[in-house]
Design goal:
It contains two helices and twelve strands; from the N terminus they run ββαββββββββββα. It is α+β, with helices and mostly antiparallel strands and 182 residues long.
């Protein structure tokens, strides 16, 4: 498989048949560790116009994923390695639910599907989380609606404070080993 670099954190798999193996995942881990936003994704769909978008994503601990919702686009996550929380918010930014996810055999859900458009973020629990995200295309930038109450990626200090607040809120909501559904 050939990999085309789009940016420091976005890559596309090239070829009529796409397979992903350990060296590809190791490559993504290196890319995530080497960029400012601590994440990398390998898109396995052909381009932004595809009707089905599948991505293998790596987020390192403390990766900030700005809370957002996707207009009329369901999505799913499947954990390959590590642990993360999917944190759901209401329209005003209050945490309304959290699902801790872990790889198969961890005792946590390893698959999550979001049918309805809702604000959400991903909170990496382990040193890194490796997961597959699937959604429908085509990718249209305006379909991603960023939460007005959440800091932009460039505001690093605000992002750190936001993550700290989310950590405190989520930790208060979750009895040990329990899943709090949105």
């Amino acid at each position: 498989m050939q990999i085309q670099r789009i940016s420091d954190e976005v890559f596309y798999a090239e070829g009529e048949i796409v397979t992903v193996a350990t060296p590809d995942l190791d490559f993504l881990k290196i890319q995530a560790k080497g960029n400012r936003r601590k994440r990398a994704r390998l898109c396995t769909h052909v381009d932004v116009s595809d009707l089905l978008h599948e991505m293998i994503i790596i987020n390192l601990r403390d990766t900030y994923v700005r809370p957002h919702k996707n207009a009329h686009k369901p999505k799913s996550f499947q954990i390959i390695e590590g642990m993360m929380d999917v944190v759901m918010f209401d329209e005003s930014g209050d945490v309304r639910g959290v699902t801790r996810m872990g790889q198969y055999g961890s005792g946590y859900p390893y698959y999550f599907r979001l049918h309805k458009t809702r604000y959400h973020t991903l909170r990496t629990i382990s040193d890194l989380v490796l997961f597959q995200e699937t959604t429908i295309g085509p990718f249209i930038p305006g379909d991603t609606i960023f939460a007005p109450w959440a800091p932009e990626d460039e505001n690093t200090d605000e992002c750190v404070r936001f993550l700290e607040r989310i950590d405190l809120t989520v930790d208060r909501m979750r009895p040990a080993g329990c899943r709090v559904a949105p």
